[in-house]
Amino acid sequence: MKARLARATQLFDTHQFEICKRTDQMFAVLMGLQWVGGIVAAYLISPRAWIGITSRTHLHVWAAIFLGSAISALPIILAITQPGKPTTRHTIGIAQMLMGALLIHVTGGRIETHFHVFGSLAFLSFYRDWRVLVPATIVVAADHFLRGVFWPQSVYGVITASEWRWLEHTGWVLFEDTFLLIAIKRSVVEMWGIADRTAEVESLNQGLEDRVEQRTHQLAAANQNLQTEVLDRKAAEAELAKQRSFLRQVIDLNPNFIFAKDRDGRFTLVNQALADAFGTSVADLLGKTDNDLTPQTEEIDHFRNDDLEVFNTLREKFIPEETITNQQGEVLWLQTVKRPILSDDGTATQILGIATDITARKKTEEALSRSEEQLRQAQKMEAVGKLAGGVAHDFNNLLTAIIGHSEMCLRRLTHEDALYSHVEQIQKAGDRAAGLTRQLLAFSRKQILQPKVIDLNSIVGDLSLMLQRLIGEDIDLMMRLAPNVGKVKADPNQVEQVLMNLAVNARDAMPNGGKLTIETSNVYLSDEFAGDHVTVASGHYVMLAVSDSGVGMDAATKARIFEPFFTTKEVGKGTGLGLSTVYGIVKQSGGSIWVYSELGSGTTFKIYLPLVADQVEQVETRRQAILKGEGTILLVEDEDVVREMVAETLKDCGYMVLIAGNGPAALDLSDEFSGEIKLMLTDVVMPQMSGRQLTEKLSPKRPSMKVLYMSGYTDDAIVHHGVLEEGTAFIGKPFSPDALVLKIGELLGASQMA
Fold first, then answer.
1. How many Cα atoms sit within 13 Å of 240 on the Cβ side?
2. Mean pLDDT of 504-531
3. Whole-model pTM?
4. Alpha-carbon distance 66 to 85, whole Å?
5. In 341-444, which ranges are continuous DSSP H helix?
6. Which residues on neighbouring strands pair with residue 475, listed in sequence order?
7. Phi-psi map region of 657: left, alpha, beta (phi>0 left; psi -120 to 50 alpha)
8. Does 524 or 399 have the greater pLDDT score?
9. Residue 647 has pLDDT above 50, yes or no
10. What is the pLDDT, as a whole number, of residue 731?
């Protein structure tokens, strides 16, 4: 309260000081104007009011000038230099009343100028200080008393006046002062009220400001705390976002499929690997189910059962292998682990799954399994081939003797002889046995080939008419031969044998007719293809494909079709060597053969022969058999039955024959015989000395002697003994007497029998 009173007093004093200051400035101007007005009044009014007008300037003019300046100077100076001070306003009050007395005097005491006194008192009330009116009133009363008694004309405008008249004027002044004092009091009270209210308002404002400031400080502190909390929260959110981003990257960089599901089977978490596998985005998979990933209901049921098992048992489940088929029909193999995600109450609301894509591993395992099966098949075929090749020599020697002797018997017998038909059946049986032996050797890749650079299109084209007759009219033969097909190196006769065997096989698979298609094309077998087919090397090949629209084969049949003596035909309808012969010829020619077949969808055999850059070699036409000859032939053969049959055959044809059972004996015969030996016919593999070694010893002694090798051994044995070189003359066992004579005639150029 005291502070408020002190503040109200301060405001009141400040307000009054400002009022006094402005009033001082007003009176400074007013007194200047009054001074000028006094001079004007002294000049214009005094001469008419006072008696004794003369031509000179009236004395009152000078009084107005000098006395007015004396009265006005000090108040004006104080108003300018010390405005608002009490001494200034008291001085102004006194000076204002003196200036009024001067104006009354110079106007000759006119009543009008007395109103200047009343007006001055009213102006002095502007100070709102009753103390200013006291000296001013005293000055007025003293002025009227003194001049009213001693110089009434200067106050009342008359020469004489009552000595008490001054009291009348003083009374009017006091009357005005009474009302001015009342006004001043009211004004002061009002000023005090304003000051008090202002102090109260300021106090309230100060209190409010203090409260506002206090609240502001509180809000600032709260705001600071809030900002700190916001910054901490933002930092926490940034760190959380960073951790989430890190965890997201960890999940997305994992090549395994990572996912979480709720009890409804909806995905609540998936990683990028899972989205990529199904050609979509992470956002698109969220909320989806297995129904949106695969159209296979069996797979969906399997996944759902596994999920529910984990939810219900709260135990991990490991699935070693499972498949899922995407919308494009691609099958993915997965190895999956599913675990329950437990909440605080021990229940599982979600499960976590991690699935490893083992599709590549499964394909590798399948490819390895196929390769192992192919390797086992190749090893089995190789073992059978070795068995067939191992006995080929003995069979061929026996068959050479059987066929040779039966043919020589037939030459000596007539058709009417009772033994002719029996010997003829012996010869036919020998020929059939020789054919079976050749097929076995072909399967085992041990037969002697005469490879040439050939054009498969030409071979197929030349053989087309024969093939059509072979398969029958109810089967359509289609040729799809690629132009500019590459060249291959193979025995043309064996290629023809391959085509005929495959055509016969296709014919038998289409008992009610159908379509047989033969195709050729240039192909490149990639490393990937070679990886899937263990016996194939990558590179450029010429493909020969034979396809039929027949009954097809199951997997078990396909696995055994190239085995010798395996056949699906009835007993007596086939030897089971047709496809094994094809297999052997293709393999021995450096190629590979693969079969593609399904029951009811026909069969396709694809043969791949290596592409060569050489030019096609012309196949020579066989000349007519030369049955007669002359000259000496050195025969070297360790097998008695073969040696006797060959010697008799050569003698029958007119040749002189030197017979030796081994290499050393042949060397002795050559040394003892002084005549010319035109030809040496020698077995390749013999005890003590091979045919090649014998040739190396005899050739320097007899440079003009030609050499013809014969053998029933397989090509591996022949190579081992150094015979299979370009330009080497060779005839394989078993052979007929006519074939032997023809071969010798070709070498010696003997005359042809008429």
1. 6
2. 85
3. 0.38
4. 27
5. 359-412, 420-443
6. 514
7. beta
8. 524
9. yes
10. 83
Query: How far apart, in whole angstroms, are the C-alpha atoms of residue 448 and residue 429?
Result: 22
| Amino acid (one-letter) located at 28 | A
- Strand order across the beta sheet in which 706-711 lies: 656-660, 632-636, 679-683, 706-711, 730-732
Q: Is the peptide bond before 483 cis (omega within 30 degrees of 0)?
A: no
Contact 143, 97 (CB under 8 A): yes
What is the per-residue DSSP string for 599-626? TTS-EEEEEEEE-B-SPPPPPPPPPPP-
Going from the C-alpha of 151 to that of each of 30, 238, 335, 525, the distances in angstroms are: 28, 105, 140, 155
In the numeric block, the tokens 């090549």 are attached to 255
Amino acid at 474: D
Give pLDDT, residue 737.
Answer: 84
Tokens of 624: 């007519």
DSSP conformation letters of 460-492: HHHHHHHHHHHH-TTEEEEEEEPTTPPEEEE-H
For residue 291, which of 311, 320, 264 has the smallest C-alpha distance?
A: 264
Q: What is the pLDDT of residue 669?
A: 92
Tell me how far apart the alpha carbons of residues 62 and 75 are, in angstroms, rounded to a whole number.
21
Rounded to whole angstroms, the Cα distance separating 282 from 200 reads 71
Q: Given this model, what pLDDT does residue 339 score?
A: 93
The pLDDT tens digits of the residues spanning 420-458 come to 877 778 877 777 676 666 655 554 444 555 678 888 888
- Strand stretches in 504-591, DSSP E: 514-525, 539-548
Please name which of 455, 409, 393 lies closest in space to residue 715, comparing C-alpha atoms: 393
Task: Report how far Cα 642 is from the mean position of its chain's Cα atoms.
Answer: 76
